[in-house]
Fold this protein.
Amino acid sequence: MKQQLKQHIEKTIALSDREFDFVFSHFDQKSFLKHQFIIQEGNYAHNDYFLINGLVKSSHIGEEGKEHILQFGTENSWVSDPQAYHTHAKATLNIQCLEDTQTYLISFQEKEKLCADLTKMEKFFSKKTSLEQITLQRRILCLISNNAQNRYEDFLRQYPNLIQRIPKTMIASYLGVSRETLSRLSHA
Amino acid sequence: MKQQLKQHIEKTIALSDREFDFVFSHFDQKSFLKHQFIIQEGNYAHNDYFLINGLVKSSHIGEEGKEHILQFGTENSWVSDPQAYHTHAKATLNIQCLEDTQTYLISFQEKEKLCADLTKMEKFFSKKTSLEQITLQRRILCLISNNAQNRYEDFLRQYPNLIQRIPKTMIASYLGVSRETLSRLSHA
DNA sequence: TTGATTAAAGGACAAATGTCACAAATAAAA
DNA sequence: TTTTATTTGTGACATTTGTCCTTTAATCAA
C-alpha cells in the first residue's frame, strides 16, 4: 500500500527508496467508514488526503440547504478543501465517504517541512496543482458551453467506471441540474 | 514597471534586489494592441504572461463556433493556456486583447531554470497556482448552484471595476448565458 | 425475512432560458 | 463630420429545466 503512494508520486518525479521513506515519514494513515466525514464545514482542515481506495464526495451546502458536489474522489486521487488548507481558514466544504475509504494524509505544516528538505517534492505538489487546475478549467468550459444532456455525456466519458458506484441524485448535483432533469435525459 | 512585478511577487515571498534582478532576467517584455492575439488556438503556447496593464479575455471556441470565455485578465494578473503550457501541447484557448496590453512573459523552459536556481520561486509559482485553483473552484460552485441572475450579481461583486470595460455580450459568454438573458436581468 | 429508508422514473405544470427578429443607441473608423 | 460597425434592449415564441407529486424499485438494517 505504501508502494501505491510511491508509484503515484513517481509518475511525476523520480525518487530513491531512501527518499521515498523520508517522504512517507511525513504522512499519517487514516481510515474512514461509509458516511463518515473526512472534512466538515466549519472545522479546520489542515490536511491533504491521498485516497488509497474507496470513494468520497466533496461538496458545499448552499444557502437554501442544497448540496452542490464539486468533486468525486477515488483511488489515487487527492482531496482537501484547498481554501482551508492554504489559507488556514475554516472549511467551507464537506468531504464525506460514499464507501469505506483508506487514506494517507499530510498536514500543511509537514508538507512545508518536506518541501523545504526535499525540493523535488515542491515540484511534485506544484505539478499536481497544475493538473488539478487544468481539470477545473475543463469543467468550467463544460458548464458554460453545454446543456444538461451534453454535460452528462461528458461525465460518462470521463468517469465511465464511477456511474455504477454513485447515485444519480449526486451525479445530478455534480452536473448542476435537478435529479428529475437528469432522469429524463436520453441514456444513450 | 519592473517594480510592479517585484511588488507582485513579494506579496508571496521575500526577495532581495539582487534576487529580483536575477528573477527578472528570465522574463521578456512584450506589448500587444487591442484585438491582437497573445495566444491563438492551434499554436504552441510556451509562455506565461504577467499583465502590467490592459485587458484580455481567455476563451475557447465551441463546436458550433460559439465563443466561451474562461477568464478576463487585467493588471497584475497572469494569463496562459495552462494545458498547452504544462503539457507542451498546442493551445486550445485564445487569449485576445480587449485593450492595448503590456506584459512580462516567461517561457516554460526559463521558468524551470529559474525554479531550479532559486527554490523560492518554485514556491511562488506553486502558491500562485493554488490561489488560481481556489478561484476556479469558487467559479464552478457558482455555476452549479446559482441561476443567471445570481451569477451576474456575483460577477458584479467580484469585478465591480470591469463592468464598464467589458461589453455585455462577453460578460454573458463568461456567465454561460445568452446575451438576451443577461440583458433582461434586473440591474439592481 | 420484514419493515424502513433511500433511489429512481415519470406526469403535470410553472419558471427560466434560448433563439430569432428588429430597432435604437453607442462607439469606432474613414 | 459622415459612415460603418458594434453594442444593447426588447418582443414573440420555442425549448429547456425546475418543482411538486405519486408510484415503483432497490437497498439496508434489525
About this structure: Residues 147-149, 177-178, 180-181, 184 of chain B lie near DNA strand C (CB under 10 Å from a C1').
